[in-house]
């Protein structure tokens, strides 16, 4: 099919912005790549680090638009605009250097439009300068988090004041410029990977600590696009994200960008080839499962649950490990967290095959039974809703001889004494389903429960008799001086 792109003429090519010719002609501006590689590696890394952290000193002044000057002059003007955009301003005072801030904003907007349109192709020097300017603006020291200011270690992040970056009018354009540069079809990965390197990726990950959700959203999109475009960086990016999670699990249990990082991972896991590699299985067991133990899991649970369920959908044999992992970190006193776990567990069971289900059904339904008896009616209701899921009911029916004896007593306990009438009704429905599945087995479980209760009552009566005998013996031996404490 022939595609017609509006505004593009057949055979048209982007203009290439080259360095200006020297006094002796174009040969004076040839980049000597051999001389660049002759620089010692350590010195080259040091130079790059300095260029990324030290802002350029430049006079902020109004300059003509790039499109309005001859091609031979655009290289110098481009570098000048980039240098001006590298200057940082104090945004805590809105009335300070208003004119200079507006000039910088206009220059950033022009650079974004230039990269987005693809009308001009940047050479290597210009790309390096631009990425250096982006680094100077983005990679900065973040202010202390709200909980660090208040000293409330266990405070709820929802109660913390949301911090919004005051320099966002400029910072947003810088992020937009970086995004357009990464996704541009004109960006050659062989050239760009010299600037978008491992150090750059680590700095991006550091910025996920920002409390500004607008910034984290841009970071998420950019890092995901970097992962997709720069294949050479993929193992490094996965390892770097893993290290962020390890620090969260074992040290801080605080990270505002965890949800965004898990969104990136969800997309990455979705692209894993089957059979899943051993390193990815270890990531599930050592990172994703332990992430469930955090107190404030509700801020990233949706993304975490998606990542975990992707593993089970790709390899059903991992269901047993995932379910046992959830049971290991099951919340005991946090009811809202328990509801999240029950929801995630249902998603996992939806993708679980009968063989894997049989491996973990005993501890699983012991936990479900406790949830059914929970005094919190939302927890009990969420557990009883499992019997509304056809796949789970089918798994239960296939293994009713094991599951019903486990779940029978909690069901009877609810019917006899749960305070919530809605829970009593749901429990009665589940009980009726078991009767319809296997009336004989249900009757057998009922008889066993009656026998068990009779034995318990007998033990209580025997213990009461033993105490009475002891009291009478003690009373006879000690006379009136002995005080019997019941």
UniProtKB/TrEMBL annotation:
Keywords: Cytoplasm. GO terms for molecular function: protein phosphatase regulator activity. Its main location: cytoplasm. Residues 1-11 have a biased composition (Basic residues). It is found in: Cytoplasm. One of its GO terms (biological process) is signal transduction. Residues 1-33 are annotated as: Disordered. Coiled coil: none annotated. GO terms for cellular component: cytoplasm; protein phosphatase type 2A complex. Belongs to the phosphatase 2A regulatory subunit B56 family. The B regulatory subunit might modulate substrate selectivity and catalytic activity, and also might direct the localization of the catalytic enzyme to a particular subcellular compartment. This is Serine/threonine protein phosphatase 2A regulatory subunit. The lineage of its organism: Eukaryota, Viridiplantae, Streptophyta, Embryophyta, Tracheophyta.
């Amino acid at each position: 099919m022939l595609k017609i792109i509006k505004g593009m003429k057949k055979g048209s090519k982007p203009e290439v912005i080259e360095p200006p010719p020297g006094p002796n002609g174009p040969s004076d501006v040839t980049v000597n790549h051999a001389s660049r590689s002759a620089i010692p590696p350590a010195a080259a890394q040091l130079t790059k680090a300095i260029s990324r952290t030290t802002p350029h000193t430049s006079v902020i002044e109004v300059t003509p638009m790039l499109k309005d000057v001859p091609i031979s002059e655009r290289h110098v003007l481009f570098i000048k605009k980039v240098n001006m955009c590298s200057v940082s301003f104090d945004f805590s005072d809105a009335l300070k250097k208003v004119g200079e801030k507006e000039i910088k904003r206009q220059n950033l907007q022009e650079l974004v439009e230039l990269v987005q349109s693809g009308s001009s192709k940047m050479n290597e020097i210009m790309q390096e300068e631009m990425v250096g300017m982006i680094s100077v603006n983005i990679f900065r020291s973040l202010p202390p988090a709200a909980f660090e200011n208040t000293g409330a270690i266990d405070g709820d992040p929802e109660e913390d004041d949301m911090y919004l970056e005051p320099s966002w009018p400029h910072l947003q354009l810088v992020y937009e410029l970086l995004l357009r540069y990464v996704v541009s079809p004109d960006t050659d990965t062989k050239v760009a990977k010299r600037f978008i390197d491992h150090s750059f990726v680590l700095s991006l990950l550091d910025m996920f600590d920002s409390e500004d959700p607008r910034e984290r959203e841009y970071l998420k999109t950019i890092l995901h696009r970097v992962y997709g475009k720069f294949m050479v960086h993929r193992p490094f990016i996965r390892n770097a994200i893993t290290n962020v999670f390890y620090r969260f699990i074992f040290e801080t249990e605080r990270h505002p960008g965890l949800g965004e990082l898990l969104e990136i991972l969800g997309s990455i896991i979705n692209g894993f080839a089957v059979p899943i590699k051993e390193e990815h299985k270890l990531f599930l067991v050592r990172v994703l499962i332990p992430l469930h133990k955090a107190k404030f899991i509700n801020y990233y649970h949706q993304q975490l649950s998606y990542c975990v369920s992707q593993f089970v959908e790709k390899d059903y044999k991992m269901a047993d490990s995932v379910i046992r992992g959830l049971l290991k970190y099951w919340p005991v006193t946090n009811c809202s967290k328990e509801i999240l776990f029950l929801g995630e567990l249902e998603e996992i069971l939806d993708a679980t095959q009968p063989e894997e289900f049989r491996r973990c059904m005993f501890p699983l339904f012991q936990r479900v039974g406790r949830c059914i008896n929970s005094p919190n009616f939302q927890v009990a209701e969420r557990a009883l809703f499992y019997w509304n899921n056809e796949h789970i009911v089918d798994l239960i029916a296939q293994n009713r001889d094991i599951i019903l004896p486990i779940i029978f007593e909690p069901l009877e306990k609810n019917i006899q004494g749960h305070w919530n009438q809605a829970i009593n009704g749901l429990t009665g429905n589940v009980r009726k389903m078991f009767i319809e599945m296997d009336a004989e087995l249900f009757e057998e479980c009922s008889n066993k429960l009656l026998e068990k209760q009779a034995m318990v009552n007998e033990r209580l009566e025997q213990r009461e008799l033993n105490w009475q005998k002891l009291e009478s013996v003690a009373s006879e031996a000690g006379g009136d001086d002995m005080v019997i404490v019941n």
